[in-house]
Every structure is written in structure tokens, then in C-alpha cells.
TrEMBL record:
The keyword DNA-binding applies. Residues 20-69 form the HTH cro/C1-type domain. InterPro entries: Cro/C1-type_HTH, Lambda_DNA-bd_dom_sf, Toxin_antidote_HigA. The keyword DNA-binding applies. It comes from Chitinophaga tropicalis. GO terms for molecular function: DNA binding. It holds the Pfam family HTH_3. It comes from the Bacteria. This is HigA family addiction module antidote protein. SUPFAM superfamilies: lambda repressor-like DNA-binding domains.
Length: 97
């Protein structure tokens, strides 16, 4: 199945809808979040997850809530895992009484 994923990596959302929209460089945004440039770059390019700590930093600096960023990360993670779990062909448990 080669369909477009409905949930983009939240780092891409952060990059496109916040960092780029505000005209910030990665270096500027990293300084504002008090993280290293490579750490933020990894998130923005989908190579690292948004951690609970990072979600709190983002909400403090750019607004919104940490829960929104964490929900996006969980939705993305679940969508990435669905094909793997489908391949396991798991069966629902049915208690025999």
C-alpha cells in the first residue's frame, strides 16, 4: 500500500507553519527554544521526534499547547506503525466460557 500518510511528522508542521511562516532561521529558532541547532534541525526534518520537553518549549515560545504537539507526534507514530502491526495478522481475543 503506497498511500500518502494523513499525519505528517510534527517537525515538518513546525518547520512549515511556524519557523518558515515567521521568517526565522533554524539557528534563530534554536536559540529561542534554547536547544542546539542540530537538535532542532533533526526535529524539523523528521529525523527526531518531538519530545514532551520540546513540546513544552515550543508552546512556551511560539504559543499553543504542548498537548497539541504531543498529539501530533502520537498520531504520526501510530500511523507509521499500522502497516507493521497489520503484517502480524493479529486476532482479537475471545474468552471461551
Amino acid at each position: 500500500m503506497n498511500r500518502k500518510m494523513p499525519y505528517p511528522h510534527p517537525g515538518l508542521v513546525l518547520r512549515d507553519n511556524v519557523i518558515n511562516e515567521y521568517g526565522l532561521t533554524v539557528t534563530e529558532a534554536a536559540a529561542m527554544l534554547k536547544v542546539t541547532r542540530p537538535a532542532l534541525s533533526n526535529v524539523l526534518n523528521g529525523r527526531a521526534d518531538i519530545s514532551p520537553e520540546m513540546s513544552l518549549r515550543i508552546s512556551k515560545v511560539f504559543g499553543g499547547t504542548a498537548e497539541i504537539w504531543m498529539n501530533m507526534q502520537v498520531a504520526y507514530d501510530l500511523e507509521q506503525l499500522r502497516p507493521k502491526i497489520e503484517k502480524l495478522n493479529l486476532k482479537a481475543y475471545s474468552a471461551q466460557i
